[in-house]
Amino acid sequence: MYAEQTTLNPIQLHLLEMFNHCDSEKMMLELKEVLAEFYAKQVQEEADRLWDEGTLNGEAIERILDEHWRTPYPEAR
Fold first, then answer.
1. Which of 9, 37, 54, 55 sits in a 20 to 30 Å window from 62, CA-based?
2. What number of other Cβ atoms are within 10 A of residue 22's Cβ?
3. H-helix segments, 1-77
4. Considering only CA atoms, which of 18, 23, 50, 49 is closest in space to residue 35?
5. Using CA atoms in the order 59, 63, 64, 67, what is the torsion angle rounded to 10 degrees?
6. DSSP character for 4?
7. Does residue 1 carry a pLDDT above 60?
8. Domain boundaries of the chain, sorted by first residue
9. Which pLDDT tens digit goes with each residue over 42-69?
10. How far apart are CA 57 and CA 47, in angstroms?
């Protein structure tokens, strides 16, 4: 069986190049933190947008909190 070949997009290539210049674990952790902050900001902005348009509200948040996010496993035989 052959592995599926994938093509990296320009963002993925750029990130790989950035990580290539990390010469210490400290630098890598700092870069990972910057990326985490970036994505946290994106999520917050999207949540704010959904809240402003009424898609996300207190009731929707309560439904989300009641969800079970576990991975479903096949039943044992």
1. 37
2. 14
3. 10-20, 25-53, 58-66
4. 18
5. 170
6. P
7. no
8. 37-67
9. 999 999 999 999 999 999 999 988 888 7
10. 10
